[in-house]
Amino acid sequence: MTENGSRIASPADLSARREQLIAEDVGIRRILVCSTGCLAIGAREVEAAFREGVAAADLQGEVQVVATGCHGLCAMAPVVVIEPNDVVYGRNRIKYVPDVIEQTVKSGEIIRRFCFGRDPEMAHLGDIPFYAHQTKAVLRNVGRVDPQQIDDAIQRGVYEAAGQVLTSMEPDEVVEEIIASGLRGRGGGGFPAGLKWKICKESPGSTTYLICNADEGDPGAFMDRALLEGDPHSVLEGMIIAAYALEAAKGFIYVRAEYPIAVEHIRIAIEQAHERGLLGPDILGSNFSLDIEVREGAGAFVCGEETAMIASLEGERGMARPKPPYPALRGYLGQPTIINNVETFANVPVIIGQGGVKFAESGTEGSKGTKIFALAGQVNNTGLVEVPMGATIREIVFDVGGGLPKKREFKAVQMGGPSGGCVPASYLDLPIDYDSLREVGAIMGSGGMIVMDETTCIVDIARYFISFCAEESCGLCAPCRFGTVRLKEILDRICGGRGTIDDLNDLERLAEVVQKTSLCGLGQTAPNPVLSTLRHFRDEYLAHVADRTCPAGVCTALLPEKEVATAAKEG
Amino acid sequence: MSAVDIGPALDVLDDLAPINHGHVIPLLQAIQDRYGYLPHEVLLEVSEQARIPASHLYGVATFYAQFHLEEHGRHTVRVCKGTACHVRGRQIIQEAVDEELGIKPGQTTEDRRFTLETVACLGTCFLAPVVMVDHDYYGTVNPDKVAEILAGYE
Ligand SMILES: Cc1cc2nc3c(=O)[nH]c(=O)nc-3n(C[C@H](O)[C@H](O)[C@H](O)COP(=O)(O)O)c2cc1C
Ligand code: FES
Q1: DSSP reduced 3-state for B18
Q2: Distance from the CA of B88 to the center of ligand 2, in angstroms?
Q3: Topology of A458-558 in CATH?
């Protein structure tokens, strides 16, 4: 039997270890305290209070306090889930902990005021619509394990798919399995992952490199952050499987430095995986070896773009390079390189676990599996959600998200960040997948969904995204460097009450030029928010230039004096 | 200004040896970790020791928002300019912070108490609008709360 902390020598050893961990935990109830996103609002203190409370009540033998990743329902932060029947409590404060231990942990009573909507009928996870309408596949372990304990991951079955692949499958078979699954890249572009791997395998080179794109630069997106913070071992497992399939011996995780907890958790996970022989030489006795290095980004949005990321890893300014050649052919140090997003890698063990064909049964014709979205903006249940591909915007915003606060009216949802677009209310019943969104002028993007109501000015949003891209342009190519600034100037004019009808035509023409002539994805997609809003909200632009009003009451230059004062107060 | 101690930079070079071109960003990050910024004397010394042209070090340092060439204030205030914060009124928060500190993003107060920065999403959009001071988050901030938050940092 494997000793705690020692090397795991084979898949059989891994299973034995898992059985042992499960046996050790029989009869233990756990209090799962989110200790990642909720840290921003006092979760660390709440966790400590639970530990003390459990000790004071002499419950250590049967109750365990676990610091987990995100439970998803960030609107109720700090969130705690209490086993055995998953009582969900929100807005936890230290002073309430003794009551929770006394009444709920000890006696199984529900305390109404901590429940979702202060409704005791919604005390349990399965009763809350936010959870009932989700399908947790990729997020299955997030909120259930202590991400700093590899044993928690092993107990939940992480690394079993890697064991199976390394000892009983040929690399080509793995690629075929991913192709069969229909998995498309979750970083925004939606390129078929298996196909990319196949192209890479056929590329000439002495070494193949693997890069996990954890730069998550889209403002308003926090899916990758939640995965790395809450279940880093599943991301590593996906990378091990990919590296084996591609016969790569070296991997990088390029992670945004603005995510200190994600950086810390992935580093700890790598160290623990090395100790157990799940990374490094001869993984699980298979003769296959892999090293993974963490690199922190340095605050440049463009480095999320794959060729700029490679430049950054090579120690250069993060400037994009012309494609082709694509990184799969010539990437890091000129060698074949696969870059995939965090969520793409996290899907890989799921696919191996159930088989590619089975995976392809879920989702839509062209988009398989599930997608994680970060729901934010004017919506009640802000948080992290996972739904099958093909769910409608209405299901996500209203069934899962609980609709808009203060009964405000849904105006649009912004998807895909600075490369995406605004989807108006008329498409609430659109089943979301890569292709349907493209047809309405938006993109799936990486999964940020910002809900907007009638108090959001669409022209201001277009200006917001263009300013973002103008600031983040790497400056290498002229269409993006100048074009984004010119677009911003036109939008500044319109929001400032000095716009004309001609400005709208200029916007459209210039946007198309920037789209078609920029070097990399940043410039090519920067005009999308402008074009999509012009397409769906032309009336609102016209109100700004023809009637000199801002219907949402945001553009102060277009408001009567007294409204300026109240708008400033209300925010 | 007093001369900068080169010692910590030499330790960094030792830790990362053998240094190649690909290490430039982790190298600058480690130096900034030790000094709080990238002092000119240190960059020149590193350039010499690591045989990386100073022009390259500066090229990289000025490209990435994370690096700064001047000493920061004792506390860093970061106002989120992400989308979720934008639609929940981050502009008026920014204005309130600018006014309270009397500086613009990228600047440091004269008494070196605060440096003001903006950040594109802190990943805590459920708290929008968000202000971060050093490692502390402040959520659903309104302009009236700004002075009170900043008063907590000396
Ligand atoms: C300006 C720009 C920013 C990007 N940022 C990210 C990012 O933060 N994370 C990400 O995974 N992909 C990002 N991408 C997409 C990557 O270039 C690349 O397509 C992706 O990492 C491939 O992985 P996937 O196929 O698994 O999605 C960005 C692209 C552009 C043009
Ligand atoms: S947009 Fe401000 S924290 Fe995400």
Answers
A1: coil
A2: 10
A3: de novo design (two linked rop proteins) (1.20.1440)
